[in-house]
UniProtKB/TrEMBL annotation:
It comes from Mixta theicola. One of its GO terms (biological process) is methylation. GO terms for molecular function: S-adenosylmethionine-dependent methyltransferase activity. Coiled coil: none annotated. The keyword Methyltransferase applies. Residues 67-125 form the Methyltransferase type domain. CDD domains: AdoMet_MTases. Transmembrane segments: none annotated. Keywords: Methyltransferase, Transferase. This is SAM-dependent methyltransferase. It comes from the Bacteria.
Amino acid sequence: MKPAKTRQILTAPRSWRDMPWGESFRDALTQHLQPCLGKLYGFHLLKIGNLSTEIDTQACAISHQVSVGDEEQEVQVIADPMHLPFGAKSVDACLLAHTLSWSQDPHRILREVDRVLIDDGWIVITGFNPLSLLGIGKLIPGLHRRPPWNGRMFSQMRLLDWLSLLNYEVVYRSSFQVVPWNRQGGQMMSRHVPALGCLNIMVARKRTLPLIMTPARRLAGKVKLRATVNATRQLHSLDDQDSG
């Protein structure tokens, strides 16, 4: 498996319009995110990355929404996603619309998002599917230097591993838009083979308790149970002696 961190300089597009089929990708993401955003609640939502700012999040019940990016255009806060200027546990939800795709260190971004998220907060991640028609384009000489092929494409299984290490519970994931363009025939293919979709969505929730009981916790539970059983046996012995 390739390491997540890279020394390669990655330049993210400033807008969805700066890549082929970009507006189709944006519209498809906006449509598929509506049900997910409608279930989020809280006080503060961060839209991290220039591409996240163009996603329509009006369906989200969180009223205070802040766009964070490295460009002045249509963002409220100019900042590096790896150094968010917010306090720990101060944000209820974060949207990373293809933010990891052009990151040199996606692990660091996820750790920074984890720092600012409250307990039981939400993280919504979108990206390109490497196992799709779009992903195959990275093998074509010359295309790997142009967006979206100059970005990184992470499989859902890899994202699942990263999120599980941070103790996040994935509550929803989906792939869609098998062909990059949104024309006649494309929707039918997406309906029948969604796993080959060009776009991925993953929604996860930050959990405060371990999802899997550690050996130490199991041992502690057994010790308490054994002590209780022994105490019960001693009590029965005393009762028998009194009766005799």
